[in-house]
Design a protein that fits this description.
The chain is elongated, with a radius of gyration of 34 Å. The longest helix has 57 residues. It has a two-stranded antiparallel ribbon. Helices cover 65% and strands 11% of the residues. By secondary structure, it is mostly helical. It contains 2 helices and 2 strands.
Length: 112
């Protein structure tokens, strides 16, 4: 049973905590299909639910779509960044030309 209350107040049972206990007892006593009530020292009382085959199929289709979306976004980012790199290279060339022209004018202005 999990509660959202801090430690001194979680000793008082809440409605959600009691509904979890009732649900666990109902699953333990009635043996409903697809739901098993379990108990262990590390987790205390917990519920195991079977996943339907349609949900499993939907999950694999969803993962396929998400992976495709990820690679499309990654490719778009690479293409976008490559355009930025080309612009940076052009700016570097222009700066080199400006530096050359400036140095040329400074050397002409200063007599040796």
């Amino acid at each position: 049973m999990q509660t959202t209350l801090p430690s001194p107040f979680n000793l008082i049972p809440t409605a959600s905590g009691m509904s979890s206990v009732v649900e666990w007892l109902r699953a333990k006593l009635s043996r409903t299909q697809g739901v098993r009530a379990r108990w262990s020292l590390s987790y205390c009382c917990y519920m195991e639910r079977d996943i339907e085959s349609s949900v499993r199929n939907d999950y694999s289709a969803l993962m396929c779509v998400l992976v495709q979306r990820y690679f499309k976004e990654k490719q778009a980012t690479i293409m976008k960044n490559s355009g930025v790199e080309v612009e940076l290279e052009n700016l570097r060339r222009e700066l080199a030309v400006c530096k050359y022209i400036t140095e040329k004018h400074l050397t002409v202005a200063q007599p040796d």
